[in-house]
Structure formats: C-alpha cells, structure tokens
Amino acid sequence: MSPQAITRAEALTLAAQIAAGELSAREVTEAHLARIAEVDPLVGAFLHVDADGARAQADAVDAQRAAGEPLGPLAGVPLALKDVLVQRGIPTTCGSRILEGWRPPYDATVVTRLRAAGVVILGKANCDEFAMGSSTENSAYHPTRNPWALDRVPGGSSGGSAAAVAAHLAPLAIGTDTGGSIRQPAALTGIVGAKPTYGGVSRYGLVAFASSLDQAGPMARTVADTAALHEVIAGHDPRDATSIPQQWPGLRAAAEAGAAEGLTGMRIGVIAEHDGPGWDAQVRAVTADAIDRLQHLGAEVVTVSVPHVVHALAAYYLIAPSEASSNLARFDGMRYGLRVGGDDDSVAAVMSATRAAGFGPEVKRRIMLGTFALSTGYYEAYYRSAQQVRRLIADDFAAAFTHCDALVGPTSPLPAFPLGERIDDPLAMYLADLATLPASLAGLPAMSVPIGLTPAGAAPALPVGLQIIAAATADATMYRVAGALAADQQQQWGGLLLDRAPSLSGGRP
Ligand code: GLN
From the CB of 433, is ligand 1 less than 6 Å away? Predict the structure, then answer.
C-alpha cells in the first residue's frame, strides 16, 4: 500500500493487514506521521505529536507479530488522544495554560487498554479548554480548523480528535463527551463518534469537567471501526466508582448484523422536539432523507415526544458548571503546571494570580456560574431544580424506550459555522449542543453518523450527522441502527461521505 492508501484505509483493514504481515505497524505509523507533518500545520488537530513514542509502540507490535504472539483487534493502528486524558510522561494540557508543562505520572485506564490492544498513540489532540466549548476555539493554544472548509470550526470540544480523523491524520481517535463533545464535532466533520452509556468507559485518568456527565468514547471514519475501538476501551474498572460492572462485547457484531439484516422488526422514534423552524432548514432536509432510509431499511418509524428535553440546555448549564467549579478547584498553582508568584507571596496571592493567568474566559465564566448556583440561598432555586429537571428528562426517555428501540434526530441544529462567528456570544455557542445535551443528562448511549451534505451555495457543502440514542446499556442497539445506515450509504454513495470532501481530494485539506 502507498502511504496515501494507508492513511485512507479503515482501521480494521490496517489491523488485518498488519496481522497478516502484509504491512508493518511501523510503516503505518510512518505514513501517518508524514501526513501530520504535511497537513497539520493547516488543520491544527494536534497539541503534541509523540513521534518517537509512536514508533516505539509500532515496533513493539511488529516484534510481537514476529514472535508469533497473538495481536489485539486494532494492533498497530494509530490513534489521536484528546488532551484531557492522561498518558504517562506525555504533556497533558486540557487545552489550558494552567497545565502547561505538566507531564502526568500515570496512564488513564483508557490509555492502558489502548496499549494492551496494541493501538499506537500518535499524540494529544486539541480541544476546548477543559472540554468547555463547541468549536475548539476555546483552546488556549490554537483553534482547530474543519478539514471540509478551513475557515470553519470542526465543532468541539473534541474538535482536534474529529479533525485528525477527517483529515486522515489518524484513522481512530478518542474524544470525551460531557454534553455533546464527541457527537457534535463528529457531525460537523463527517465522521462517526459515539458517547457510551455513562459508566461504560472508565473515567480514571480523564481530567474531570462535570463528573456525573463526562464519558470518553470512540471516533472513526466508519461505524465498524468505531465499534471496534469502543470494545477496546469499554469495560469495568474498579478505579472508577461509577464504572458499570460489565463487559461490552457484541458492539461490532451488532453493527454487522444491522449491515447484513437491516432494521426489520425495529421501531425507531423521531424526537418531535428536535425539529421545527428553529433548526437549520438544510439540516432538516438531510435528516428527513436519512429517516426515509431507516424506513426503507425495514424500521417502523414513529414520531415521539420527549417533552422535557426543551429544558435540557438550562439544566445542563447549571449542573455542568456546578460540578466544574468544584472539580477545577484542584488547579491552585501548588500541585500541577503553572505557578504565578514569588516565594514571598502568600498562598492566596499565588492561587489567585495563577488562576487569573492560567484559566481562559470561558473556564472562568463556568467557575463563576457554578459557584453562584451552589451558594447558600441559590442552591435550591438553581442546582436542585436542575437536578429535578434532569430526572424528568431521564423519565421521558425511559417512557419512550418502552415502545421504541432507538430515537433519532439531527446531531447538531446547524452545520459547521465560520471561525469567530460565535466566540463572543456564549449563548449562541451553547445552542450548538441543543440536540446532544438530553442524552448526556440521562446517561444514555448516543452516537452521530454522517448522513449527507448541505447543498453548496453561499456556504460550501458541509456534512450533516444523525444522532442515534438508545436506552441505557443498549449501546449495541445504537450500533445496529448505525451499521444498517452505513451499509445502505456504502451502496448508495459507493464510499464514505468523507470521500466527497472537495478540500480533501488531492491529499491536502
Ligand atoms: N459544549 C458543551 C459545553 O461547553 C459540551 C462540552 C462537552 O461535551 N465537553 O459544556
């Protein structure tokens, strides 16, 4: 395979060829490192590339194969790791100046599992500071650009992970999703991204933003690759008290079953509240087409009301900042990264100066919002009410799943927007997560799959994603729907949506 063909290949294809000795893991890693060197100066997907570490991991896989040892399902395949997950000895910033220069002394469980599976970690992917944002413009280092249109955002907060996969810098990435940060960037860059059931993937070593919502998950160009990566990272971890004590086999098999058998016998609900005049007309049209395809694939499609989701945004922006204000108290200038002030300054003065210099404006806004919402006198009015709304949303979903196998709707109310368009308007930015927040609040598995393009006009053609939500722990059901849709598209389009990105033809974004 040529380096160009290697960087275009599916993760599972690369793994099969490496296992068969037709390609070396080292060759695959070198092809991706070369592409990063050529293309990432334009895209800005990575904050740190660990070329030597990646080569060493690849060589270890090749040595394992040469010794006749069994290889994991994704052994030798390169991956971009969102910079909110710690990897021993590798700079981890969370996109923040406050952690600049910090090298963690341990691996996140997700990293331990990736290593055990032989996945090659190329480096740390850019993100909004502490995963707070929807465009990756809140990174303290640099924005990431959308490979479909370099003047547009890739979404966020896992925008670096999404752009790395879309620009063929890595076939796989890990993102994290607190309110939509895997699904929304996946939709805006034309790739697949899944948020597992809360508790499905360990949070040990995932720097906490809002602990009751945070989940790491897989991102890739195909549903099968996404499912394969999901199986590698998921499973019980005694180091995370909210980890569900079960394994998650059968996700790939579910995607394959959907591809082979379609959706006959399944009932899929279209969320009534995630449609209407407030939603981008082009996104609505592409979504309606995808819903027709679901019907064509054998599903019974019904409209379902999930009435309390209209309050998800208000509830999320109380709960997530409240948890963040508590979690981020650990960044005090004493223990990690940045310290501003001299030896003669008081502890309080050093803390205050470090935080003033080290946190960006959005992080400060969230800390203040959360501190306010948790203060005496306001706790009942704000935080407790938000928790009550969260329960109502979860109950609505539970009711919907008594008569539907999955729920669908647009992942994002609008396609990729221009850099700079929303950065000064926090509410406009928060609205980008309208469709993804409800499943986060309810702890449900949810994923985004590419379904088509907006027509080119004043703006270029841009990808649209369909969100598929399933009942808690029914991650396999979500992959079944995604697998069916992807197989149908393969027939219709003769390839991936991403192959149609004009900016990506000729090898450059
Ligand atoms: N955009 C949302 C926020 O800013 C969600 C972010 C996320 O999922 N990490 O909080």
Answer: yes
